Amino acid sequence: MGITRRQFMRVSAAGLAASTVGALGFGDAGDALAAGVRPFKLERATETRNACPYCAVSCGVLIYSLGDRSKNARSEVIHVEGDPDHPVNRGTLCPRGAAVLDFVRSPNRLKYPMHRKAGSDKFERVSWDFAMDRIARLMKDDRDKNFVAKNRDGVTVNRWVSTGFFGTSSQSNEAGYLTYKLARATGILGLENQARI
Amino acid sequence: MTNSWNDIKNADVILIMGGNAAEAHPCGFKWVVEAKAHNGAKLVVVDPRFTRSAAVADFYAPIRPGTDIAFLSGVMRYLLGAGKIQQEYVKAFTNAGYIVKEGFKFEDGLFAGYDEAKKNYVDRSTWDYEFDEQGMAKVDDTLQHPRCVINLLKTHVDRYTPEMVERICGTPKDKFLKVCELIASTSTGDRSMTSMYALGWTQHTTGAQNIRSMAMIQLLLGNIGIPGGGVNALRGHSNVQGITDLALLSTSTPGYLVLPTDREATYADYMKSRRFKPQRPGQTSFWQNYEKFFVSQQKSFFGAAATKDNDWAYDYLPKFDVPYDALKIIDVMAAGQMNGLFCQGMNIMMAGPNKTKIRNGLSKLKWLVSIDPLETETARFWENHGEFNDVDPKSIQTEVFQLPATAFAEEEGSATNSSRLIQWHWKAAEGPGESRGDIQIISDLRARLRALYAKEGGAFPDPILNLAWNYSDPGNPDPAEVLKDINGYALEDVPDPADPAKLLLRAGQLLPTFGVMRDDGKTSGGCWIYTGVYTEAGNMAQRRNASDPTGKGVYPNWGFSWPANRRILYNRASADAAGKPWSERKKYMWWNGSKWTGPDVPDYAPTVPPDKAVGPFIMNQEGTARLFARTGMPDGPFPEHYEAMDAFIANPLHPKVSRNPVVRVFAADAKSFGTPDKFPIVATTYRLTEHFHYWTKNAHANAVLQPELFVEMGERLAKAKGIQSGDWVEVTSQRGSIKAKAAVTKRIRPIMVDGKPCDIVGVPIHYGFIGLTRKAHPVNTLTPPVGDVSAQTPEFKAFLVDVKKTTPPAQAAATA
Ligand code: SF4
């Protein structure tokens, strides 16, 4: 019986779920072998389908994480590889995508809200509540003061141009849509993303 | 893209110009390799550098940065002169035969209607067709009329002889002609060429016209709507397509609707100028449906608060007087007229042109909010990093928030790749520390702002108070619910117009297609082009059926491609006027006697027969594609070569109008442009395979692979300046100077331009003073603060510098 790589992967996945290399059909010999080797690191991992966050080829990736996604359990990404089923990348990744785990685990990932006071030379950790309350307050004060309800010709224009919003073209469509809704509802005109810079 | 990544395998000729897919889009480039291996395709690369795309090309030609229009206009001249156009296609599907108004002219670098004082075309009335009494455009099917588009085009491009192309572009005549020949080989119905481009075309003051030039070539060749054809923007960020569709753009609303302007005081005014009527008999002119899309969108934004009586909450939307694009925001900020700024996943200090101006602007803000998974230069613009960011924090009064966002692996949702393909991704893990998703951050901000307005009142609180946020968890909505909102659903029962006893839609039903959207408030839907992505049949973005029944690379059941799951746009043009495939090889969509059939979704109703002559270009009022752009482009209906703002030579075609005459230069930037006497070297920026923008300098492996900034230069220049690889050099432009290591290569060679040698240097963009890579001067210290006249994309790809050998930066010397 010929077995394709993909079938092999599926069979393997079934085997991993059963936590025994014996499911590959090696019978007792397989069991003995399995007992003698270090467990395959992805054996206990949860596989999640995602996409490379970098360029717009949007290669399919499989993310392997520890933890079973149950509530209260923190999961940790341990491995990322190309999705062999994806029609565009067919399992391949370029030097950026192949190293994407180092972005997920970068020492420069931000962990806590930080705040820099006027004239200060450092960031200080603050709570989300502090940050979000203060930002909402600053927004409202500026909007209330500088909102333009009518232009010089008396036309209703309802715009707020003393605050701008650079959005990201790396967020999901859903996050982008909510960002759009909120920014426009406040009257912000200066709304842009990386599309044209 | 008009076509898709997979479709590239169907091409016979692949032109990579204005991009470098092998290095910037490697996994998409595999379809180029596939086309070469299994379709006998020839790869042609035109680039100032001998890139890795060039290294595997069948033919490579060099070009001076910023001269693509001259090159492409020369190609058009060649095609028209040699009769290498697909005549029948051009006649049926373009405006080649349309008669242009008397008075239209082009003289000494300017089209009709230019106002010298205003630096703009104030009267564009002649940039249009002649119309008959019914408002239909006049057409000469024989293409004989002296003012029909194709004849005007012939005259326009006649100046771009191979000699002129060589003089402007520095491309040797024989190489240019060889490229022409290869391109021309696809003018038959059984061969196609694909064009792959990226920022190499957009980042110029003539950016949009670069792409238009290629679109015109593809139309002349009959390569639009065809497998292996198209004009394909490779694009940058993973969801730049989606976020553009969803209009995080200063003058748009989702689905390429346009935000109202001050001139549209009332809703009636607004609709008058949007609902374009057909200008040729029987054409679709799809924007006739504008109001349905707009009203459904307003219902999605404002729910019950958008009513017929308040013109669907028309006044809840801001109107714009001038476009507030990124360059404008920066200018306003630098003038001290902006108080607050959000940078969500945007490192504007690196991404915008002219770092110094941006930093000055950030310093004048009252507050800045950075929302990002990573440390950025923008969030730390106030921090002193020696000569790399030489600021005094005490003097900067900006209050800064740095909010930790989750990244792709830690959230779920959909993203749209450059093939317009919407695909879902699932969450694999929690983000680090207290990081939160963008959805939660935005929702939280909305809740707090709304609470403040509810309590205190304030300036026009209505749109904030009434903003619809009808999700099960308004504090952190489920992305699936948001995608349903974007897709749209019926708000009330909608009876079937054909049989009122039946229901077309029942209340609550997800909309199957944008065709059922209504202008009476009975449907809601955030972005009409996305309708169909989430229907009663489920979330189409999650589909993962990897089968390709026809083997043409269509994958119709993988994800959802907007609009309407169409994989190749304008696919009606893959068949001739009678609906017959142009050839067996390129057979795609055809008329089988009763309907349009083939592997894709047709451009319009599948039962409309070919004898109705409905054109494929359904968004245009004419139904045909425009070789003559009418008033659509601010710098003219035909592309014209203009020098970059840092002009290397006086434009040989019209030295008095050397540069694009409608470029927007802010008063503050009037003295920002360099001249070749002081800055005799042409510079361009580019990207490395190992890095993505300014993120991967924070990732260990990438930082190890490409650890530091360099400037790439040719051997002739290096020798003349006494520079060797590894030496520190100073690169200076009119805007500022940076230090970088020299990388002397054979990949950039000097070319002869207008009789003088032209040296070119290239600088990769990825380095800054934050990250695991070595600290560096941001490259946008050098680049000019000016943008494309159409899209305001900064001119990062062509500017003037000088280089000289120098000493290491202080910090580098200390650690060396
Ligand atoms: S792996 Fe490379 S080619 Fe694929 S999406 Fe990521 S950056 Fe682009």
From TrEMBL, chain A:
A GO MF term: oxidoreductase activity
InterPro entries registered for this protein in UniProt: Mopterin_OxRdtase (IPR006656), Mopterin_OxRdtase_4Fe-4S_dom (IPR006963), MopterinOxRdtase_cofactor_BS (IPR027467), TAT_signal (IPR006311)
Keyword Zinc in annotation: no
Cofactor(s), names only, from the UniProt record: [4Fe-4S] cluster; Mo-bis(molybdopterin guanine dinucleotide)
Primary location group: other
Family matches, as Pfam families: Molybdop_Fe4S4, Molybdopterin
GO terms under biological process: anaerobic respiration
SUPFAM superfamilies: Formate dehydrogenase/DMSO reductase, domains 1-3
GO cellular component: cell envelope
Subcellular location: Cell envelope
UniProt keyword annotations, A-Z: 4Fe-4S, Iron, Iron-sulfur, Metal-binding, Molybdenum, Oxidoreductase
Residue ranges annotated for the 4Fe-4S Mo/W bis-MGD-type domain, each copy included: 45-108
Family: Belongs to the prokaryotic molybdopterin-containing oxidoreductase family.
Protein name from the UniProt record: Formate dehydrogenase major subunit
Naturally occurring in which organism (per UniProt): Enhydrobacter aerosaccus
UniProtKB/TrEMBL annotation, chain B:
Gene Ontology BP term (one): anaerobic respiration
Any GO molecular function: molybdopterin cofactor binding
Record flagged with keyword Zinc: no
Cell compartment(s), UniProt: Periplasm
Molybdopterin oxidoreductase domain segment(s): 1-381
Swiss-Prot/TrEMBL keywords: 4Fe-4S, Iron, Iron-sulfur, Metal-binding, Oxidoreductase, Periplasm, Selenocysteine, Signal
CC cofactor: [4Fe-4S] cluster
Residue stretches making up the Molybdopterin dinucleotide-binding domain: 683-799
Pfam families named in the record: Molybdopterin, Molydop_binding
UniProt key word 4Fe-4S: yes
Source species, domain of life: Bacteria
Gene Ontology CC: periplasmic space
Main location: periplasm
UniProt-recorded name of the protein: Formate dehydrogenase (Quinone-dependent) catalytic subunit
